[in-house]
Amino acid sequence: MKKHSLLFLLLLSFCSHAQGLKVQIEGNIFFSGADSIRISQNFGSYFRDYVVSPFDKKGNFELKGIVPGPDYYLLRFGTQMLHLVIRDTNTIKIYADGRKIASQCNFVNAEESRQMHEYVLLTSSWQQKTDSALAAIKTDQSKEAAINQYMTEQFKQYQTALQSYVGMYQRSAALILPLSSINIDQDFQSYQNLIVQLYQSFPQSSIVQQLYQKYEFKKQELEAADPFARGKLVPDFQSLKTDGKKQMKLSDLRGQVVLLDFWASWCGPCRAENPNVVKNYQKYKDAGFTVMSVSLDSDRNKWLAAIAADQLSWPNHVSDLGGWQNKVAQQFGVSSIPFTILIDRDGKVIATNLRGAALEQTLQQIFGF
Fold this sequence. Notes:
The protein is of the alpha+beta class. The chain folds into 3 domains: 8-109, Sandwich (Immunoglobulin-like), CATH 2.60.40; 123-225, no CATH class; 238-367, Glutaredoxin. The chain has helices at residues 111-139, 144-168, 176-180, 188-201, 206-225, 268-284, 300-309, 327-331, 356-367; strands at residues 21-30, 36-42, 47-54, 60-67, 71-77, 80-86, 92-97, 105-108, 238-240, 247-249, 257-263, 289-295, 317-318, 339-343, 349-352. The chain has a 5-stranded mixed β-sheet with strand order 13-12-11-14-15, covered by helices on one side. Strand 7 and strand 8 (105-108) form a beta hairpin. Helix 1 (111-139) packs antiparallel against helix 2 (144-168), helix 4 (188-201) runs antiparallel to helix 5 (206-225) and helix 6 (268-284) runs parallel beside helix 9. Residues 1-18 have low confidence and may be disordered.
């Protein structure tokens, strides 16, 4: 099997365990083409071997020794390798045909290792299809459009299979492999979904610890760059109320939980969400919840008519009638509406863009009913 490169370059350091873990792995890999087999980890530029055993003439082997602790390892023989999760001292058994290691390999007492092998088969199959498609196009460029159309459909099926795999093996250590194929800078949310599961299910793993530290660092970096990250103080502002004369500040509402809502009478999604905001306002207003609506309208009459029509009964409506040039919207960097910020009693961000059931659930958590 070709070297699997999804994880290896991420392993920059190794946090050894104070006490090692006794392991025993035995089985048979016939026609392996190798004279020995070993339990290793990959650190980018080199392998670290922990336990080594010879194959006998029939391909039988028995690995007995100490590894640093519960973790993700590689079982290496010749130029091939299998992915291995070791959690405890139970004897793992592996039986395989070295000539067809991908399709003919059985794991006993190693379900998560079997799941990793399943992932490798899935990704290898896609890679083979991709290689074949490129070769076919190179041979006959007149077929490029048809092949691209076919591969587009195949890619959709591949993505569906990957999603199914992740859903099927939630909280399994096998998620280390799909996690390591995700670029944290390009898809932070997917990375977060997997690493949180991994850290909860396999915190003993030094590799999972390293990946989680990488996630925490990136999370802090993103939050530092996000002016409305949870816990940050929302900047104060002042704007005109509906009479066009009196002004109010956001800080006037300090001590209450505030939904700061950027909207407009001409905004369909805003108007569609208004009944939900009204419902939550009526439910929680006596408990200390209010809404401050900043309108991006430019027509006063249409703004006031929408307030009346949607029964937006809270008194905190402001706008300078500047449309998209609204000074508060520009101050907050609002580029699309609806845009909301839920603010705690101290004026700090709880969450942004909560709508529908998400808003209701968050308010239930805050107020307890």
